[in-house]
Specification:
alpha+beta, three-stranded mixed sheet, 5 helices
Length: about 200
């Protein structure tokens, strides 16, 4: 695994433009961030709306404050680790790149080797499915004073998943199901698998 501070690095193993790969039609990083922010608003606004109701619970229950702060501190690392664990080789893969681009407010995981489109779709959806399912269980089964904490955490994590939703939709729209996908910096490429030769 390679850790990077800054934008998504160029690939070390492939030059997609030289090998017949097709680039995805993608927005600039600035437009992508705007899309993510717009998609996250329907989840962030209710989260802000329930904060006043939570104030009393957080004041009288120090454990609730500790749980909430711990969740906020661990949410992004756990989210990204779930992404990474779905790629071939998981967190120990030499092709795995995890990074943070502070200037754009983005954390990312990319795999510096061709991988199937469907594997990428599973990778994109895994944190939402795993963490949000857990938070739904907390919100439904926790005592009433903890329920709002679970709902707030669920809303915030769903908002964090907005970038994954945007990327997931772009891949489904543009890339055939059996194709391979590869990142080279900010650009994502896809390539159809070779067709079997007629005998």
């Amino acid at each position: 695994m390679r850790l990077v501070l800054g934008p998504i690095p160029r690939s070390r193993v492939l030059s997609p433009g030289d090998e017949g790969w097709t680039p995805l039609r993608e927005p600039t990083s600035r437009v992508f961030v705007m899309q993510v922010l717009l998609l996250s608003l329907p989840f962030l606004l209710p989260a802000f709306a329930i904060l006043p109701e939570l104030r009393g619970c957080l004041r009288t229950r120090p454990l609730a404050i500790s749980a909430y702060v711990s969740f906020l501190a661990l949410m992004i690392p756990v989210h990204e680790a779930i992404h990474a664990s779905v790629y071939p080789g998981g967190l120990g893969s030499e092709h795995l790149v995890m990074g943070a681009w502070m200037r754009r407010g983005l954390c990312y995981v990319v795999y510096d080797s061709p991988v199937s489109r469907n594997r990428v779709l599973v990778m994109l959806s895994a944190p939402f499915i795993a963490l949000s399912s857990l938070l739904v269980l907390v919100a439904l089964s926790a005592p009433s004073e903890w329920r709002l904490v679970g709902i707030l955490a669920l809303l915030i994590h769903t908002a964090v998943c907005a970038g994954d939703f945007v990327t997931f939709a772009r891949l489904v729209r543009q890339v055939p199901a059996s194709s391979l996908v590869h990142n080279d910096g900010w650009v994502t490429y896809w390539k159809a698998p070779p067709q079997p030769m007629d005998s």
